[in-house]
Amino acid sequence: MFNLRCFKAGKGDCFLLTWETDETHRLLIDSGIEGTYRFFGPLVKDFNEKDSIVITHVDYDHIGGVFKWLNDDQQPLNPLVRFYMNTPQLLITPEQSDKVGIEHGINLEQLLKEKGITPHPLFLQQYEDNILYLNGLQLKILSPAKEVLKKLIEEWTAKEIYQNYLDKKLEDNDKVSARGISNNRSKDDILNNAPKPHRWDKDLLNSSSIAFVLSFNEANILFMGDSNPDLIVDELSEQGYTPDNKLPLEILKISHHGAKYNTTKRLLEIIDCSKYLLSTDSSGPYYHPSRETLILISEYGRSSRDKPIVIYSNYSLDIDKLLSQDERFNIEFKEIEHLEIVKKKDDGTFE
């Protein structure tokens, strides 16, 4: 059995996975905004050497909570916790260190060092067969490639990344809670003219996201972070997955909070999945999830039109502003705090 908690993380991501072997183990995946710490903090105060943290990329809505935790002297982060995060400073040599200054990652690396914590990189070709093993759990890394991280070094300075953090923090403090103008694109228009993903080199922060297939007791969950779907499809294709040989998934964590450029027909057609997980409070200025993403999942995210799908979310979604009654056919929307995946049934699904 394993349990997946989905914290209220504003526009961001924050998940806590708990599983049992001969002991209990936990994995924190991202940490939302700073305010998210009040939700996950009480559950991680005793994190130790059996537990791990993965920060998918250095964006405010993914690292804010950990930044808050590291500044909490009443609940220090145990230095024995395994901490995984990619930043350019982990990939450059000392003589290049003036390229990306100490501010990179919002001083996060400096703060980790002060607390005695060594972050470990997690990217393609870092581990044998691109697999990280964590106490009975398996993470099959799909992204990022080292090429993406090198490009991030070349085009982003520490000061720019730090300013991006501050801008998004201010944006979060001033967020608008109501959805903006409704997207009136018809279903046919979306399917015939689906948004194309950004080129990865034009969206480097999100394209540097750590994405992986998490496996435990034959159950697979694809955590996308904010990753570029084309990069994920390319890697899965390298592994032999096609529309005729789909990757079986219990859950897909939808990329980038349901943004319209981060879910594609190509991706949905090479996975076999009927449960999707969305992390967003739908606030402005982006008002995720997009209508386009939900239409694509409805059309291509199931093996047949008659097969029902479930979209889980950590906040209540105003579905009436996103889909018509007909477009919601065989889709169940559920607001959740946690999911329990117990055991494999005779039909190959999990309880």
TrEMBL record:
Residues 11-71 form the Metallo-beta-lactamase domain. InterPro entries: Competence_DNA_uptake, Metallo-B-lactamas, RibonucZ/Hydroxyglut_hydro. Keywords: Hydrolase. One of its GO terms (molecular function) is hydrolase activity. Coiled coil: none annotated. Pfam families: Lactamase_B. PANTHER family: DNA INTERNALIZATION/COMPETENCE PROTEIN COMEC/REC2 (PTHR30619), RECOMBINATION PROTEIN 2 (PTHR30619:SF1). This is MBL fold metallo-hydrolase. It comes from Chryseobacterium aquaticum.
